[in-house]
Specification:
The protein has about 400 residues and is α/β, with parallel strands linked by helices. The protein folds into two domains: about 240 residues, 3-Layer(aba) Sandwich (Aspartate Aminotransferase, domain 2); about 130 residues, Alpha-Beta Complex (Aspartate Aminotransferase, domain 1), CATH 3.90.1150.10. It has 13 helices and 14 strands. The protein has a seven-stranded mixed sheet with strand order 2-10-9-8-5-3-4, with helices on both faces. The chain is globular. The relative contact order is 0.16. Bound molecules: pyridoxal-5'-phosphate.
Length: about 400
């Protein structure tokens, strides 16, 4: 018996998740570009362009700037494994699942890693990091700029200051924030900054843009031992992405085409316009959620990550039922919580392509229907109405200031 496997016919979803986000049709078209070889002279020009765009988005002139052939977690591995050797002292600020992952990876490289924690929903207090590093020879300080598991943003500048005091390199995970939230790698002197293709850049998953400062490169040169990972050894990977263009591994060429197009869209829009778009759409989303009588996990507005909003699931409402109904009835995917907040929060992503007015209004209306079906009451259309008012106010204020 041969079993028939049919053509792929996936549902058309709106992915309002913390990644992957839905992507622009231009990016799909770029992904279907006929393949060329990774050593083809034409492709080398395409690599140059990819790096030009990456440097514009990271706002850096760093030589080591490339997309790793890996998801965002590969960026964490590369950043940590290239800097740390056994015995090195390091600090990782942990306030959620992804910063915990950086800590976990760091402990595999050295047995001297200090974890400085904050409760879910808050950034790690930089004073705690300063105290933890006092009198120690700290080589790296790492944290997640946007902690996607809780929707918290952590400011970079105060961490840079402490890293300077301790003589440490600063490693910042911007998987959930690059191209949505202000980040200036050179001005803010981030030593290693990495991201993911599938979040606010809105390309398909599978690439992790990374950039490395000259100071961090110097640390790579001074290593006494080899980087544990051959694949993520940035020095040898740069033989391919650097001027020599020597074979290292075969990169996902089609994904590079897609990433290049997604980054062209970022640059066409302009970073500042993009940051503003993410800010305004989240404000409208939050206005809507609060008008519906829902609470947010992150209480302090200044700590809210513009790309991911964590909403407390109200009592008596079934987490999975709501998410399934959103999917089945409206083709909208949102995410639940994990770790200590599993079953307690929903995470709504407005990242890159998904951070759009029509999607915010659609989502609020769809959520109202799902909640109503479970007996959760609110004034009719409260969410969408509040979001509309929020947009209107922001636009009026902008018009006045012009
Ligand atoms: C999504 C995410 C990651 C992990 O990325 P993957 O692509 O799933 O490997 C790491 N850090 C942060 C902050 C993220 O949001």
């Amino acid at each position: 018996m041969t079993q028939h496997v049919g053509e792929l016919t996936p549902p058309v979803r709106l992915m309002l998740t913390p990644g992957p986000s839905s992507i622009d049709p231009r990016v799909y078209r770029a992904m279907a570009t006929p393949l060329v070889g990774h050593m083809d002279p034409w492709f080398k020009g395409c690599m140059d362009e990819t790096q030009i765009l990456l440097r514009q988005i990271f706002q850096t002139e760093n030589r080591i700037t490339m997309p790793l052939s890996a998801s965002g977690s590969g960026g964490i591995e590369a950043a940590v494994l290239n800097t740390l050797e056994e015995g090195d002292e390091a600090i990782v600020a942990v306030n959620g699942v992804f910063s915990e992952r950086m800590y976990e990876i760091a402990t595999r490289a050295s047995s001297n890693v200090i974890k400085v924690e904050a409760p879910y929903g808050k950034p790690v207090d930089v004073e705690d990091v300063r105290r933890a590093g006092k009198g120690k020879k700290i080589k790296i300080i790492g944290f997640a700029h946007g902690e996607t598991s809780t929707g918290v943003i952590t400011g970079i500048d105060s961490y840079r200051k402490v890293a300077d005091e301790l003589g440490a390199l600063l490693i910042v995970d911007t998987v959930a924030s690059l191209a949505a939230v202000p980040i200036d790698v050179d001005k803010q002197r981030v030593d290693i900054c990495f991201s993911g293709s599938q979040k606010a850049i809105s390309a398909p998953p599978g690439m992790s843009p990374i950039t490395v400062s000259p100071a961090a490169e110097e640390i790579f040169r001074k290593r006494k031992t080899k980087v544990q990972s051959w694949y993520f050894d940035l020095t040898t990977a740069m033989n391919y992405w650097g001027k020599d263009r020597l074979y290292h591994h075969t990169p996902p060429i089609s994904l590079i085409f897609a990433l290049r197009e997604a980054m062209r869209l970022v640059v066409e829009e302009g970073l500042e316009a993009r940051w503003e778009r993410h800010r305004v759409n989240q404000l409208a989303l939050i206005a809507g959620l609060e008008a519906m009588g829902l609470d947010l996990l992150v209480k302090n507005p200044a700590d809210r990550l513009p790309t991911v909003t964590a909403v407390m699931i109200p009592g008596g409402v079934d987490d999975a039922k709501v998410r399934n109904q959103l999917l089945d009835e409206f083709n909208i995917e949102i995410a639940g919580g994990f770790g200590p907040v599993k079953g307690k929060i929903w995470r709504v992503g407005l990242m890159g392509y998904c951070s759009q007015k029509p999607f915010v209004l659609l989502f609020l209306s769809a959520l109202e229907k799902c909640l109503l079906d479970q007996g959760f009451r609110m004034a009719n259309g409260a969410g969408a109405a509040a979001a509309i008012r929020s947009y209107s106010q922001v636009e009026t204020a902008a018009a006045v200031s012009r």
